[in-house]
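Here is the promised in-class demo. Please do not try to memorize the tokens; focus on the logic of going from shape to residues.
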């Protein structure tokens, strides 16, 4: 989303939480639960941030990275994304969020449906099984800025 926002010069605004985790954390969580004690075999866990941040913090961090970008509603950002052909290699390079178009459409639908607040996912089993998630600090402006500057 960050790279695509940079390419479109648009920052999406929404009223949902940011519960994403960096890929390095997701890998560590997968390692933590690869031989879990007390979990049933083949149990699925939600790897999302157990202490999410507000979308406003994401917007603030993106504004620092992209000071000339325009802030638009998430649904408008998704509509701008959909103008690009997902089968065009150069479009995929410039707008990698095209690969997650359904995900962003779902987020836009949730925002329009007034689904707000904390994570959509139950993280109890995951935080129980993973010391990495259990000890993860709250997502704050600094961590979000680190995600945005990649």
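The designed amino acids, position by position:
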């Amino acid at each position: 989303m960050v790279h695509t926002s940079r390419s479109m010069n648009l920052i999406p605004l929404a009223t949902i939480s940011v519960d994403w985790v960096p890929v390095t954390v997701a890998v560590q969580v997968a390692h933590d639960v690869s031989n879990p004690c007390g979990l049933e075999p083949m149990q699925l866990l939600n790897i999302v941030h157990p202490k999410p941040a507000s979308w406003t913090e994401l917007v603030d961090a993106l504004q620092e990275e992209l000071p000339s970008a325009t802030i638009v509603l998430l649904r408008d950002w998704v509509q701008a994304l959909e103008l690009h052909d997902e089968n065009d290699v150069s479009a995929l390079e410039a707008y990698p969020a095209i690969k997650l178009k359904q995900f962003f459409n779902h987020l836009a639908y949730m925002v329009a449906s007034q689904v707000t607040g904390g994570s959509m996912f139950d993280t109890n089993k995951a935080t129980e099984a993973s010391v990495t998630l259990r000890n993860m600090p709250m997502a704050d402006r600094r961590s979000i800025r680190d995600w945005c500057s990649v």
